[in-house]
Amino acid sequence: MIRMPDVITKKKNGKKLTNEEIDFVVRGYVEGQIPDYQMSAFLMAVCFCGMTKAEVSHLTKAMAASGDQVDLRTIPGFKADKHSTGGVGDKTTLIVAPLVASLGVKVAKMSGRGLGHTGGTIDKLESIPGFSTALSTDRFMKQVREIGIAIAGQTGNLVPADKKMYALRDVTSTVDSIPLIASSIMSKKLAAGSNGIVLDVKCGSGAFMKDRKSAVELARVMVDIGKAAGRKVSALVTDMDVPLGYAVGNSLEVLEAIETLSGRGPEDLRALCLELAAHMLSLAGQGSVDECRARAAEALDNKTALETFGKLIAAQGGDASVIKDPKKLPVAKFSKKLVSDVSGYVRRMDTEQVGIAASLLGAGRMTKEDVIDLGAGLVLQKKTGDRVEKGETLAVLYASEQGERMAAALDCLRKAYHFSEKKPKNQKLIYESVE
Ligand code: URA
C-alpha cells in the first residue's frame, strides 16, 4: 500500500517516483484524503529535488485527467491553441486567435483572467460591450464548428488538481519550480483538447521567469510533455523586459489589438503575433514558418483577420461595431500624463511595476474577489531605447477617480523608468524557438 509520508521521503531523498505513486498523490489530493500539510511538504520536496522528464510527463497527465477533458475530435480540421506564460501588455491572443482562424485553423480556446501584475484574455474580451465568455460546452463546440473560433473562460471542472495545487503553491512558496509550472500549464492545455499548441514563454522583468536560461528550460520541458502526450508543440522564448505594445489595461489593449488587426499597431506586437501565428499555421501543416508568416501578414494587411475578430465578437453576444468604431469601448473618465523630469534615453523599464501601476488604476485585481475597471489602464508614449526630453510625456494614465489610485499609479510608473545618457543596445524580441 502506498503511504504519503513514504512518497514525501522518497522525493525528499531525490528518488524517482513511480507512476502509481504520482497517481496516488494527485488523486488523493483532489479527493481530499491527502491534507494540505502533506501536499505542501511534497511540493517543497519537488522544488528542491526536481523531477525527471518521465515523472513530469506523468504528473501532467494525471493532473489533466483529474476533471473534465474537452473532446474536440468531432470538429473537423486542425485545432490549434496558444499559451503565454504571462506578461504586461500581452494582448497577442486577441490578434493571433482570429488571425489563424481566418486562415482555416480551428481555435477552441479556454483562457484565464489576469491576477497580480499580469493581464488575462478573458478580462480583456469582457471590456467589449455585451461580450460573454461563459459559454456552455455545446455552444462553445457549435461556434468553433460554425465560425472556426471560440474563446471562453475555463469551465468549473477543468483540471481541478491544478486549481487546488496552484492555490496551495501560491501560499507555500512553491510556485517557482519548473516541473510544477510546466505540469500546471500543460495539464490545462492537454485537457483543452487541441492538436497543436504554441507556447510563448516570457522572460524578463515583467515575466514569471526572470532569466533566459530558466525560460528556455521551462520551454523545453513543456514541449517534451506535449510531445509525450501525442500533441504537436513548439515554444518561443520571448522578451518581457519591456511591455508588449504601448497599451496596458483591458479596453485599451482591445483598442491596440484592433489597430494591429487592421494592419497597423506597434511594431513589436505585430512581429510577435506574426511569429506565433506562423508557428501555429506551420504545426497545422500549412507550410514552413517563413511561408506561414507571409500569409499571416497578408491576413492582417487585407483585414480578413479583423473580419474574423468581428465574427467572434458577434457570436459571443458582443457589439461587433467596435472594430469599425473603437470609441464604443469603455475608457475611464479621468486621465493624467506622467511627465519626464529628466532628459536622456530610457535605459530600462521595470515591467512588473508597469503592470502594478495599471492594476492600481483599476485594470487588475489585487485579490481574486476584486472587481476590475475595464476602462482603466495606461498608454505608454516612451519605452526602452527611446529618447526623452525633460517635460515630455512618458505615459498617459486612465482611471475612474482622480485621488489616491491615480497618485499611487503615477508614483509607481515613474519608478519603473530608468534613464541613461547613452542609448542602450537594442534588445531582441524573440530569443529562440524550441521545437
Ligand atoms: N501559470 C500557470 O498556469 N501555472 C503556473 O504554475 C505558473 C503560471
Describe, in plain words, how this protein is organized in 3D.
This protein is an alpha/beta fold. The protein folds into 3 domains: 4-50, Transferase, Pyrimidine Nucleoside Phosphorylase, Chain C (Transferase, Pyrimidine Nucleoside Phosphorylase, Chain A, domain 3); 72-323, Pyrimidine Nucleoside Phosphorylase, Chain A, domain 2 (3-Layer(aba) Sandwich), CATH 3.40.1030; 330-420, Pyrimidine nucleoside phosphorylase-like, C-terminal domain (Aldehyde Oxidoreductase, domain 3). It is 45% helix and 15% strand. It contains 16 helices and 13 strands. The strands form 4 sheets. It has a 4-stranded mixed β-sheet with strand order 1-4-5-13, with helices on both faces. Strands 6-9-11-7 form a 4-stranded antiparallel β-sheet, with helices on both faces. Strands 10-8-12 form a 3-stranded antiparallel β-sheet. Strand 4 (196-203), helix 10 and strand 5 form a beta-alpha-beta unit. Helix 5 packs across helix 14 (304-315). The longest helix has 17 residues, at 212-228. The radius of gyration is 22 Å and the shape is globular. Uracil binds next to helix 9. Residues 85, 166, 175, 180-181, 184-185, 208 line the site of uracil.
